[in-house]
Amino acid sequence: MSEAPAIDVPAAGKREATKAANRAAILAAARVVFADIGFGAASVRDIIRRTDLATGTFYNYFPDKESVLREILDETTVEIRVRVRAARQDAPSVEDFVRNGFRAYFDYLAGDREMLELMSRNAGTIRAMFDEPAVGAGVEELRLDLERGVADGILAAHDSELMAAAMVGAAVEVAIRLLNREPLDVEGPVELLTSVFAPGLGA
Questions:
Q1: Most exposed of 2, 74, 78, 136 (fewest Cβ within 10 Å)?
Q2: CA distances (Å), 84 to each of 3, 106, 176, 192, in order?
């Protein structure tokens, strides 16, 4: 019986590391390009120029620039969802439930100016992608948290589906406009949105 050929694990690991690094380089370059000139004006060539990769390499990882933007938004949205949901956990009052969630959202974006610039410059495209799974998951998680708040007696009974959509939509619209305010203000939007939504959720 012949022996099975040896597998070069280190080489395979190096290939995977290279693939991961290339993918990350494309995503990082695309964030800069979409923030600088906008998604509509950007081309695959514009993205690749900001990396050390050949143009053809792009298509080993993404079929088009739309898929790159979707990946960027998905990664950001997943991180935001984790932070926002953790901030809402065990909120002792309706004001804390609303305020903590909005603050976690805007604190994250305030720490990522590039993402804020991308959102601001590509507002129409972002709105068109509002039904994407990653964003939709955030709305669904908020709906579940609202219903839990009602069950716990913290929040008043309400239409949780519409309320979740309204709260997420308002947060996105305010975030799109944040860059127009200098200095960048987090507390203002947080308190404004809390004053809008908390009274309607008061138990």
A1: 2
A2: 54, 10, 18, 17
Amino acid code (one letter) for 134: A
What CATH fold (topology level) applies to the domain 9-63?
A: Arc Repressor Mutant, subunit A (1.10.10)
Amino acid at 57: T
Same topology, domains 9-63 and 69-201? Answer is no
> pTM of the predicted model, to two decimals?
0.85
Q: What is the CATH number of domain 69-201?
A: 1.10.357.10
Taking alpha carbons only, the member of 29, 53, 23 closest to residue 43 is: 29
Cα–Cα distance list, 193 to 15, 22, 92 (Å): 47, 40, 18
